[in-house]
């Protein structure tokens, strides 16, 4: 197909999610969907991505094009399996390598009974990949979206994970409760959505000497140093000294727009 080729598409288990150029005719979309299924026998359903992920709950809209009429996905990665609804929960297969890399980093530096906090955990892909790689650690997984939390509990059971606690709620409300219970964490992972608030204050509130934090943000390539300075300024504001360990471009999310990961330790 020529001018109506999709800009991008993702395979999530047996479902393909396709994004078409603006103005593509419905007949062309349907034709592409059926051809995609014909060429990829493992694809049982094709959906069109109609909008971007929106808001703190990171919801999107998809439209059925061909195959089975379902929006529930069963997806496998990193020796784990995840079930979720594509419209009311957030999941990015493009972060599969990120999840594995962070899990192995934590495994490399963790000790028995270390506590690991994952904020904005969605259906718990980071949490579960980390839990299966760090079986002697305790994982705490916080998510605001109730639908995603429901799937997080399901995914915990599907993967036989026992060293993980799923917490539904707003990070800003959950963290004070953890503090009241005397909780401090050895590792904090922050795969946050695109919001103005960095939530670094909440991370520093439950960090201690030696805590490693994996912080995600979004910026244009020329603004990378601004993100690093912001992290350092937030640390100073909370009376914390930090050392930047690594800064990684963790994927493009649009033209000249990057997802970045800043790894640092509280010293």
Brief rundown of the structure:
The protein is built from 7 helices and 13 strands. It has 267 residues and is of the alpha/beta class.
List keywords for this structure.
267 residues, GMP Synthetase, Chain A, domain 3, Rossmann fold, 7 helices, globular
Report on the structure:
The protein is of the alpha/beta class. The chain contains 7 helices and 13 strands. It has helices spanning 26-39, 96-109, 125-133, 146-158, 171-180, 200-205, 224-237; strands at 8-12, 15-19, 45-49, 62-67, 72-77, 80-85, 115-118, 138-143, 164-168, 185-190, 207-220, 242-254, 257-266. Strand 1 (8-12) and strand 2 form a beta hairpin. The radius of gyration is 20 Å and the shape is globular.
> Uncertain segments of ≥5 residues (pLDDT<50)?
none
CATH architecture of the largest domain: 3-Layer(aba) Sandwich
What's the alpha carbon Rg, rounded to whole Å? 20 Å
Instruction: Please work out how many helical segments DSSP would assign.
Output: 7
At the first level of CATH, the class of the largest domain is Alpha Beta
CATH superfamily of the largest domain: Vaccinia Virus protein VP39
Kindly report the CATH topology of the largest domain: Rossmann fold
> Which structural class is indicated by helix and strand composition?
alpha/beta
